[in-house]
Amino acid sequence: MQTNGLVGQGLWFRYSPRHPWTVRDISLSVGQGEVVGLMAPSGYGKTTLAKLLAGYLSPHRGSVLVEGNPLPRRGYCPVQLIFQNPELTVNPRWRIERILREGQAPTQLDRLGVHPGWLRRYPHELSGGELQRVAIARVLNPATRYLIADEITAMLDANTQAQIWQTVLAYVQQHQLGLLVIGHDAALLKRLCVGGASPKENRILDLTQPTTALVPQF
Amino acid sequence: MLSIRQLGVSFTQYDQGLNQRQLTVITDLDLEVQAGEVVAVVGASGSGKSLLAHAVLGILPDNAQVTGSLRFKGQPLTPARCAQLRGQDIALIPQSVGYLDPLMKVGPQVRRVAQLGGLSKAAAQTAVGRTFNRYDLLPSTQGRYPFQISGGMARRVLVATAVVSQADLVIADEPTPGLHPEIATETLTHLRELADEGRGVMVITHDIEAALQIADRVAVFYAGTTVEIAAAADFPERLRHPYTQALWRSLPQNDFIPVPGHQPSPDQLPTGCLFSDRCPWFTPDCAAERPALRSVRGGLVRCIHAD
């Protein structure tokens, strides 16, 4: 197994000893400047795997390494996870400007179309698509080295989806971030991961076949 | 079967202190659903698609005001009539799985819907068993509570709920996200079958390509209004409205190129065409007044330049 990149090795996880394994022996890696897709139907542990890789959960067995080191236990995590529902990932009592400054100072407000007029508003005063831009702007800063996008545009219309991905892919390419895209829309993953932002080899993994999880599907 | 003319929905909000303001979220919305037909409703996120469904069912919150005309089978939909029809003649497949009763096992939940639709208890149980089987839900699923099943399974349960009802009009609000592609196709196929049995079906979705496989007509919403109503066969070459064309181009399987800019927010709607600030065809005439919905090449479009 390589030591550079974001590497999940032999990951096992379950929510309680009485439950079946949600993540069973999954290994995967995302290199710098690489866009990797992850596809599986609902209930296959996609989001759980994302939380393991971003340090929200700790695996029962296996390890998550970034450039050969474990994830930092405190401070800003170089692996950042963007969720499907932005309204659940922001403090509803904070104004947008405070939400944006939660981690590092954001650098991409203009390019993501985060309007200065939004900064004084509260999260419920923005639409889902607008709030998702805020959630993305919050993590696009120099301290972020790997991005995990868990169905971040599933509930958005095609035009907003294309707008958001255009900006994220440009940033990922410019700053050579590693990007793991989780989704079930084959056309979108194909567009993002094959001949997409990165000139390096891009892959789409299918979680329904754990043993072949590292084999490209397209 | 369902006829919507000039629908408007606005909410009364508290601004600061006791100052109230009106927020108009749907303006001049027109839509028609005939028996035996599937109408897909697509469009921008936050353009009022789900609100339309809630208006038809009469389940908008108390601070909402509805204007315009909503008619079902020729009769106006009054709040009292809505309450009587929903669940019986009009069924909703809701967008969020949070609409299931968390304290009731899913089997009895679906069976209750079938019984409300007029089936005997035994017939309802048979219908539930058959429908669960059809959607690849194990018989043991019937004995589970909503929190014990995955998101995809919960969605299939919601679809089953509408399928076992005897409703003449089925409104499906985003029935397919999170579903395995084969089950998504199966779900849409079943909605088509419901229409072929003579019911009217309205499918609200982002997945334009999937919708085109089953829909007769497609209504495109933008900023709370209908900008175009096209036949499914009009996609992609014969589309009339610039927003519909932009939406089609921005699909990942097509060009994946978005138009810049954002849908105007409800408190800052322009006086003219709602799409004017992003439109490649913009002329000063567009800013003068809201274009009316007019007939062009057999479809309806709200644009003065479409031909």
TrEMBL record, chain A:
Span of domain ABC transporter: 6-217
Name by which UniProt lists this protein: ATP-binding cassette domain-containing protein
Pfam families assigned to the protein according to its UniProt record, in alphabetical order: ABC_tran
Key words, A-Z: ATP-binding, Nucleotide-binding, Transport
Annotated source species: Vasconcelosia minhoensis LEGE 07310
InterPro entries in the record: AAA+_ATPase, ABC_transp_ATP-bind, ABC_transporter-like_ATP-bd, ABC_transporter-like_CS, P-loop_NTPase
Source domain of life: Bacteria
GO biological process, one term: transmembrane transport
GO function terms (MF aspect): ATP binding; ATP hydrolysis activity
Record family assignment: Belongs to the ABC transporter superfamily.
PANTHER family the UniProt entry points to: D,D-DIPEPTIDE TRANSPORT ATP-BINDING PROTEIN DDPF-RELATED, TRANSPORT ATP-BINDING PROTEIN
Coiled-coil ranges per UniProt: none
From TrEMBL, chain B:
Gene Ontology molecular function terms on file: ABC-type nickel transporter activity; ATP binding; ATP hydrolysis activity
Keyword GTP-binding attached: no
UniProt keyword list: ATP-binding, Cell membrane, Ion transport, Membrane, Nickel, Nickel transport, Nucleotide-binding, Translocase, Transport
Membrane topology category: Peripheral membrane protein
EC number(s) on file: 7.2.2.11
Reaction catalysed by this enzyme: Ni(2+)(out) + ATP + H2O = Ni(2+)(in) + ADP + phosphate + H(+)
Domain ABC transporter: 4-248
GO biological process, alphabetically ordered: peptide transport
Record's keyword annotation contains Secreted: no
A Pfam family recorded for this sequence: oligo_HPY
Protein family per UniProt: Belongs to the ABC transporter superfamily.
Designated name of the protein: Nickel import system ATP-binding protein NikD
Lineage of producing organism: Bacteria, Bacillati, Cyanobacteriota, Cyanophyceae, Nodosilineales
